[in-house]
# Entry
Amino acid sequence: MSAAQGWISPATGTAWFVVVGLEVHCQLAAPTKLFCACRPQFGAEPNTRVCAVCSAQPGALPVASMEALRLAVRAGLALSCDIAPRTRFARKHYFYCDLPKGYQISQDEAPFCRGGGLLLASGKRVRLQRIHLEEDAGKAIHDRGEDTLVDLNRAGIPLIESVTEADISSADEAVEFLEALKEILQHAGVSNCDMEKGELRCDVNISVHRAGEPWGVKVEVKNLNSFRFVHAAIEHEIARQVAAIEGGDPARRVVQETRLWDPDKHATRTMRRKEGAADYRYLPEPDLPEVELDAAFVAGERARLAPPPAERRARWMHEWRVAAKDAAALAATRRLADWFEAVVRAGAPGKEAAAFVLNELPKALAEDGGRGAVEDLGLALESSPLLPRHVAELLRLAVAGEVSNAGARLVLRELARAGGDVDALVDALGVRVVRDTAQVEGWCREALVGREKIVADVRSGKEAAVNALLGPVLKLAGGKADAAFVRETLLRLIREG
Amino acid sequence: MSPTARAWHDLDAAQLALEHARGARSVVATIDDCLARIAASNAGLNAFLALDAERARERARLLESTARAGAAPGRLHGVPIAIKANQACRGLETNCASRMLAGWRAPYTATAVERLEAEGAIVVGATNMDEFAMGSTGEHSAFGPTRNPWSVAHAPGGSSSGSAAAVAARLVPLALGSDTGGSVRQPAAWCGIAGLKPTWGRVSRHGLVAFASSLDCIAPLARGVGDLELALSIMAGADARDASCLPTPFAAPIALDGLAGLRLGVVAEWRAALAQGPARDLHEANLSALRAAGAELVEVSLATTRHAIACYYIVAAVEAASNLSRYDGARYGLRADEGARTLLASMSATRRAGFGAEVQRRIVLGTWAHSAGWSARWHQQAARVRTKVAREFAAAFERCDLLVGPTAPTPALRLGAHAGDPAAMYACDALTTPVSLAGLPAASIPAGLVEVDGARLPFGLQLVGPLEADMLVLAAARVAERVVCPEPLRAPVEEASS
Amino acid sequence: MSPAHDPATLQALRDAAALARLDLGGDEAERLCADVARILAEFELLQQVDTSGCEPMVAPLEARGTLREGGPEDSLPRDELLALAPRSDGEHYVVKKAIGGEA
Ligand SMILES: [Mg+2]
Ligand SMILES: [Zn+2]
# Structure
């Protein structure tokens, strides 16, 4: 489906235009909650990350976290928003068991940033209306018996809510926007956006209309916690709304309401009609004075901001021939991207460096010898004695054939453990590739003993059969042999027979 | 150790601390006697809602032993103090005189209380009040009205009724109240003692159960201004747990020899609020005495005075409705949801059962005045009038250093005088609410006695300063208290109880 | 019409009571709303004040720049927190069944 041509009704063949706006909540990667010093931790025992402030004990007051504010400003800068010189919190009132104060501290008329936006691949710009800071609610658990259970570990965790203009015209565009937003926020270190942990949640506003007609009635679908659901909910709503309008049944007409996505039924359902719409009674928060974001602070954050990840990825692919998949993985966090670029700046070839960083470093850094997660790689590298110039040097030796892959792995492990000098380690670990033909021939002869079938196969023209011998020879060589040279030697010996 | 001739309860807090520190008097003995006096008089006054005798004695022993071990004594060494039941003190019941919070013991201590304790003060108990600080007579307590030590048929004023009554009855030399629209100044006036409402934000509100956040102040009550000054200099100052607390360094006390050179603005509208009669005569005589003592009296006008009550009650009710949303029966306090099957029904039943009528009235008023469709005409308008009030004060301070007037339009009212007529009760706050709206510092000092319907009752004088001029207010009040009331007032109930 | 007798105001007050979760109905609730309506009648004067040029005040003083620096601190022990609650299961607060969204 192309957004420009609209959505074609299967019943009538009419082209419908789709108008979508998003409200995206992202959890900030801050060390504390927004208004107290509790340390959030996903999966912690219920109600163990709760204090007098976030459980709304009488007399306890909120004090806003500097670090949360810093991350929020960084998000605004990364999305080219205008940062307000002064910003204020406001109370948003409603009663629910997961909202301890009976109001959420959010922002109303004075969000910390307005404007901004980002570009889709098509060149279309999706504008942001605003981004504001607010606290998360706790968790209500309904599926354990008669009562509802409440866990306040999440209550007070800092979120930014990004509100787009209604610039999105299809489910595909919505998901493309979200992917891009996620990448930017992760890259800027603002949020981990881990959707499994509920760190990114999305509300969608959707309406449909025919060409030349005013926009239709807007329906909100709340609390979508995966991009797949966002896509499905939009597609479903378009079909539902078009069918309702074309059907003309007044009982099924589209009304302004809030709906929820039911993944089991693969459909949206009514949560709250407009008549029952909440009156949030926003009140400027008297407990929290206006926050002045002075120009020097904002300029400092701007200076620390990395180039946009999409730009960096494009440059790596274009200039250094890095594979697209590798570029995406390396751009996942700013730390990793910076580290990778440092390796290249230290003289390593980009394409090889990308593959090496992604394939070898997680293993080298994993303490139990297992395979570490690429997601945490940037953070792990920052505290490791392994430096970008080590990797560049090692790659140079590997490309020159002076160390084998197996040898390079041994050196990496040692560097990750204690750092050191690459050249010296290659010798100390005895992994410098042996060029001595006699020695390599010796290992090959030893491996050929009792392998008459392979010898026969090679002689009859099946050259690939020799590959089965590479492993045994390299093992005998203890990482000191070069695979290509070994292969060459094996073939020669077999043919010379 | 030889006790001085005077009983501990005849000393002010500063003197008592000095005698304890010098070893001239035993802290343990003072605390024991203090608890005994409270036990003897509380049935009549109903000033205390919760006592913590064990904790108080424990602290007394600890203070004595650390002092023997050479620790430097604090400025309130061994002084028994009372705190209002809306101030958190770990271990003590902080019920705000509400069924909603009956039994609630704060899991932390208010900054102001912590700072007083760090100077050696000993909290003996929590005092009665109008529920959640909403009321001007002390009658709106879920645990019965407080009585005025000058006449048990009269109200002590409110909402800091118990703290004022306890100080007036010499049960403690120093107590904390809270002043949102006059809740410390007006009971101070009605009980014949001194009370200070600091500049909003001067004292951390951390641990003060919120009523109307943009107006609430923790405020001390004592028999004389000297102790107010001492308490304020201990409590004031930035607090990492209250973002609205003033970060500016706190000014040192100011010493004034007399009132010469001081321009006192006499607010025409406040003066006119007094009806013909003994209170008005007393007030006029006091103004003359201040002039005679060297003050230059300047007539000023605050035309918004007549709107202050409406403005204050709307603003305060809106914030109260917001602040009291947290009482839903889930995490602390009362849950009264017998038969309720849903969360909604449980919350509603609990809030109807837990809050008294005055609190419910203000929650409804505040919710309504801030609801969609009504907010612009009511809450927004009130918040604009508030700006106008503050501007008027600022203009008045162009012409004078401090403002002076009566603290309240009348001396203490009889208990039940305004039962069933909330608007009439609100009129008690006509002269204190304007000051609160502007956030200004103000002291009420005892200004003599008047004879009203057969009772001799105290009357108060209010001194108001510009924002942050707390120390000037206190310095002038210190001189003024000697001018208008040279003999300290002594409540008669005390003789009956001791 | 004075707010004390205006049916629209009275209805709005009843709605506000419901919004504030004080909505059990009955005579008492009626009396409460009537009280508030009478108070409002007294406050009607406020509408006459000329407030042109006056921004709504949020607080008398703006203490700027008071933000929390520094890292995490210990939360409260769960036992202490839940001991204050009317009902808990030792791990959670326990409340009456919450059906869907807001209560
Ligand atoms: Mg939000
Ligand atoms: Zn907390």
About this structure: The CA atoms of residues 406 and 479 of chain A lie 5 Å apart. The two ends of chain A are 65 Å apart (CA to CA).
